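Example 196, ligand uracil.
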Amino acid sequence: MDDLDALRARFPPARDLPDWAARATQPVFGEGPPGAALMLVGEQPGDEEDRAGRPFVGPAGRLLDTLLERAGVPRRDTYVTNAVKHFKFTQAGKRRLHQSPNAGDIAHYRPFLRAEIALVAPRLVLALGATALQALAGKALPVGRSRGMALRTQDGVPLRATMHPSALLRLRDAESRAEEQARCVADLRAAYAEAS
Ligand code: URA
């Protein structure tokens, strides 16, 4: 496979996708310059990403943009993608409620993610949250204890972990929210510096 367009054109990869994927509007692929030194990997597209066909453009994406700006990391310099390329949800009346992908779902999309990393060839991959970390490390790891550790992806690319912006949005207590956001900003800044 020689480029990202060719990879996308051949989606879905070798294995069939889970049944629920057919209910999504479209697959949401990564975005950013091939050759980006830093790659950010989230969980899966949300409701807005599913409609727009672009990663991290909903509430979590807007928070990510703010955190990147505070960290001095231009988003256009990074490649932003997700472990799972379709929105998994349950319908509740008119609302589509996010459902977390399970280990089987993550495994279905992993070959595509690995191929994407191989083509972008980042110096460092930052996992945003537990799903991305599991997809990249090839096993479930706690984000809390993995933070600050020098990990590697299954294919040997340097890997770091931080909290997912959606988890930050769920924090109700203002003080913890500010503290956790500051830690995430520090993680983004450190990852960018290490990748540069
Ligand atoms: N939007 C994304 O694109 N990915 C996530 O993980 C969450 C929201």
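Summary: Residues 4-195 form a domain with the Uracil-DNA Glycosylase, subunit E fold (CATH 3.40.470.10).
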